[in-house]
Amino acid sequence: MAIVRSKPMQQIYVWELPVRIYHWINFVCIVVLAATGYLVGSPVALKSTAEASNQYWFGTIRFVHFTCAYVFLFNFLFRLYWGFAGNEFASWKNFIPHNRAQWKELADVLRIDILQTRQEPLHSMGHNALAGVTYFMMFLAFAFQVVTGFGMYAAMSTSWFPQLFAWIVPLMGGDFAVRQWHHMMMWFFIIVGVIHIHLVFYHDYVEGRGTTSSMVGGWKFIDVERVIERIHSEVGPRKKKSKSD
Amino acid sequence: MSSHTHRTLLEQMQEQGYSRRDFLKFCAWISAMIGVESTGVVSVVRALESKPRPPVVWFHFQECTCCSESFLRSSHPIVADIVLDRISLDYTETLQAAAGHQAEQALHDTMQKYRGEYIMTVEGSVPTKDGGVYCTIGGRTALDIVKEAAEGAKAIICWGSCASNGCIQAAKPNPTGATPIHKIIKDKPIINVPGCPPIGEVMAGVIVHVLAFDRLPQLDGLGRPKAFYSKRVHDSCYRRPFYDAGLFVETWDDENARKGYCLYKVGCRGPMTYNACGIMRWNCGVSYPIQSGHGCIGCSEAAFWDNGPFYRHLAAFPGFGIETTADNIGTAAGIATLGGMAAHAISTNIRKRKLIATTDGGVPKKGGDE
Q: What pLDDT, in 10s, does the model give residues B303-357?
């Protein structure tokens, strides 16, 4: 016998194309940066009989790391811009809890999805409040990696751009400390990345609202009632706000 | 001693039996050292033959005198003989003939007579804990002496890692509160010449630059002369091609060590250390640590002693004990995360089973899930 969940669902276009492109470029960059970064920290032992002049694999790994860092940075800057230019789900307001509803949602997500002490379904459209805060911390970590990474790179570059970050080295007390923290932060990305994937699967597994595929096509499913509810709750306060502005 | 100070360096050299030819050779050599372009040699010659040398007072606090030793072993004899030994210093505890009250008198006279003109050089850090009792000279604390001497100094040169960043005695837990000069004196131009010790030629170059041009050399963000500290040891390392090729010494006695591969994986600090060792080398250019088969320990970097162990690429992570690296912590946190996820996945599946069990004809029944 088939089991049917027949609540009326509607498709909502949540993630715009630029957000999706950002997401996948960012994904590739972080994977490549972590892998090459780890190798730079702990190069594998190569049992090669070739002369040093015939190989350059470690140099290549570093080159890939540095090149990827530039792509990562500009992709990140683009996302920051899109936080102001994009739709309501891409807005910076999702990332910094600034009203009571967001704090309440944050607590609900913790109780329902993470600790699973309550069972009612929770239907956020874009990022839920907890995810938003986590991504905000991740953005801070992005900024930290950019500053420390380019700060270290400044010493080996003649380009003007990395020099903009050279100040971090004396501030942190030398290259050693900078490298140590840059390396530590890699683990933050690995752990947050793993949890991120786990929770995406979790949401799809339990809610079946297309969380996973939404980052490919941009569409998510949502209860019709929720859509109406949301439109009402959003239109109300927004009108008020525009008056006061 | 202070009676010498109104003469030029040339006059003083001639008095010691050096010819003008020797003097010119010295000028050309030191100009090359400090990175002055060839036309600048003239300015060095002019300055050293016509300008009276400014008086120099040289303090020794919490240190081992390895900076002075390094200076004395500078490859050019004139550096030791003229700049340091006979003429340049109006006060230096380890080398001056005067002792006791006479020595203190010489210092006092110089500081009064040449107020605002003398160059203050410092070897060693200054203890600040417990009222500075851990280093006293002539009954006064180093802290007192530094503050008084700095007040009338034109500029301060900090020799070595002790004076520049605290060095070994400032390593955790820093029992005496050893403090570098730039954290005590804020209102004077300060040149940091770190290293344990700094290279003798670098010291000579810095002091000649100040004496000859009457101004500070170009400094980087940490107050170090760019001429000597703008590149990492790694950047001028002759083993660098092995690094780029990914050929590393894995253990100290392996075949790769014998072949002279890169020491990166056995803890070489070259990639994080700003110094001129790879170019100037030591003991008249004979060798330097990496050339002798030992990694750089980063002696010219701040907190190098706390960034151990020296023979491992990644440092011990602060607060987690000496054997714990960032990777150990990351791996542990990763395993904990996987454990949490497994628990979460199990809980999710129980929840989903309940959901399926209670879903009937599309409307989830209340009850059974709480």
A: 888 887 888 887 767 666 667 777 888 888 889 889 988 888 888 888 888 878 8
Q: Rounded to whole angstroms, how far apart are CA atoms A219 and A12?
A: 5
Q: Token pair of B78, please?
A: 């004139």
- Do B290 and B268 contact (CB within 8 A), yes or no? yes
d(CA B277, CA B155): 26
Contacts of A186 in chain B (CB under 8 A): 330
Domain B2-228 is of which CATH architecture? 3-Layer(aba) Sandwich (3.40)
Cis peptide before B173 (omega within 30 of 0): yes
Partners of B91 in beta bridges: B57
Single-letter residue type at A69: A
Report in angstroms the alpha-carbon separations of B62 from B111, B133, B160, B214, B250: 22, 12, 11, 29, 37
Name the superfamily (CATH) of residues A17-43+54-204.
Transmembrane di-heme cytochromes, Chain C (1.20.950.20)
Q: Which of residues 62-101 of A touch B (CB under 8 A)?
A: none
Of A59, A176, A198, the CB nearest to B298: A176
* Whole-number Å distance between alpha carbons of A111 and A127: 16
C-alpha distances in angstroms, A102 versus A94, A105, A126? 9, 5, 12
Mean pLDDT by 10 residues, chain A (245 residues): 72 92 96 94 79 87 94 95 90 86 83 77 79 92 96 89 91 87 93 93 87 92 75 54 40
The token duo for A4 is 């049917």
Q: Chain B residue closest to A181 (CA)?
A: B326
What is the ipTM for the molecules in this complex? 0.77
Q: Let me know: does A209 contact A222? Beta carbons within 8 Å.
A: yes
Q: Do residues B355 and B364 make contact, with C-beta atoms less than 8 angstroms apart? A: yes
What are phi and psi for residue B57, nearest 5 degrees?
-110, 135
Q: How far apart are CA B156 and CA B56, in angstroms?
A: 10
Looking at residue B206, the DSSP 8-state letter turns out to be H
For residue B272, the chain A residue with the least C-alpha distance is A175
Cβ-defined contact of B247 to A169 (cutoff 8 Å): no
User: How far, in Å, CA of B197 to CA of B341, rounded?
Assistant: 52
Tell me the C-alpha distance between B265 and B256, whole Å: 11
Residue B194 CA from chain centroid, whole number: 2
Half-sphere exposure of residue B102: CA atoms within 13 angstroms, side-chain side? 6
B23 C-beta neighbours (distance < 10 Å), count: 19
